[in-house]
Specification:
- With about 325 residues, the protein is mainly α.
- It contains eleven helices and two strands, in the order βααβααααααααα.
- Helix 3 packs parallel to helix 8 and helix 3 packs antiparallel against helix 9.
- The radius of gyration is 22 Å and the shape is globular.
- The N and C termini lie far apart (about 65 Å).
- The N terminus is likely disordered.
């Protein structure tokens, strides 16, 4: 986009896109997204309600699970306005500043999820490797401090993103590739020198996803060593079973991230629909799966759900 005097400028609005090859006014596409949002919101609100009301769930593991559910709600609500506007009402425009705000919140909640999963792996490490000191190590004040630390770290490290984008001129059009705003997507329509954005973006990814995933792997290496030292096979299986829900949540979060990175790096000729679908999987699948995983795999959560269900039937 160029102004009348030939200098590049920032457009007042940006145009969002749907899924390439699929008309945005197709009813079944809108229905799928509505179902995904419904599962996300109802499932995570149910987890939060259960942990709040059930005294048996007032334990460190479930406090971290509450953080995860609250963060997943944040991810869903960050994308909801523009996704529903695009697919349900075929309204594709978003203000430039509003796009920067949405970009900031989407990335902040995504990076927070990585930190929360790391905290949950530390919870499992203490529970299995040092069970006698579990309650004294993971006190309520320390859990709160960990949550605030994750929030502060994510907010601080991502705060420069909107300003790094704001300084750039946009001369390659104003059409984005998704129904929401992401930093890499905005870089594709910006012109000028984007080296600072790329370098800082890479630093943020390594400092968050890279460091967090490394410590998660380290935690499970130590957990596995401790479990293999248990003499009873039944006790070993029981200990590993307490980690199964968290392992599934980690895989649901990191596998799409790795897939997106691999496609972007090694399959540059991939059709646009592949990039869009994988980005949607990355943002929509983990918030939807996490409450399902913990409801199915965690006995206390199942009991709480059944208890509420029986009360509603009485």
């Amino acid at each position: 986009m160029w102004s009348l005097n030939g200098t590049p400028f920032q457009p007042a609005t940006l145009q969002l896109a749907g899924i390439p090859g699929i008309q945005t006014d197709v009813a079944w596409v809108a229905l799928i997204f509505c179902i995904l949002y419904l599962i996300n919101i109802v499932g995570n609100l149910s987890i939060l309600t259960l942990v709040f009301w059930e005294s048996a769930l007032h334990q460190p593991m479930y406090y971290f699970l509450s953080m995860l559910s609250l963060n997943d709600l944040g991810v869903s609500l960050s994308t909801l306005p523009t996704v529903l506007a695009t697919f349900c009402f075929n309204y594709r425009h978003i203000g430039f500043d509003a796009c920067l705000v949405q970009m900031f919140f989407i990335h902040t909640f995504s990076f927070m999820e990585s930190g929360i999963l790391l905290s949950m792996s530390f919870d499992r490490f203490v529970a299995i490797c040092n069970p006698l000191h579990y309650a004294t190590v993971l006190t309520n004040s320390r859990i709160l401090a960990m949550g605030l630390g994750i929030l502060t770290k994510s907010f601080t490290i991502l705060f420069p993103f909107p300003f790094l984008v704001k300084r750039l001129p946009f001369c390659k059009g104003n059409v984005l590739h998704h129904s929401y705003c992401l930093h890499p997507d905005l870089m594709k329509v910006a012109c000028g020198d984007i080296h600072v954005n790329n370098i800082y973006g890479l630093f943020v990814v390594i400092f968050t996803y890279g460091v967090d995933s490394t410590f998660i792997l380290l935690s499970y290496a130590l957990i596995l060593r401790a479990v293999l030292a248990i003499a009873s096979q039944e006790q070993r299986l029981k200990a590993l079973n307490t980690c199964l829900s968290h392992i599934c949540a980690v895989l649901a979060f990191y596998v799409p991230i790795i897939a997106v990175s691999m496609i972007h790096r090694f399959w540059k000729s991939a059709p646009p629909v592949v990039h869009v679908v994988m980005s949607n999987v990355y943002l929509f699948v983990p918030p939807m799966l996490n409450p399902i995983i913990y409801s199915v795999k965690t006995k206390e959560i199942r009991k709480g759900i059944l208890k509420i269900f029986h009360k509603s039937q009485a």
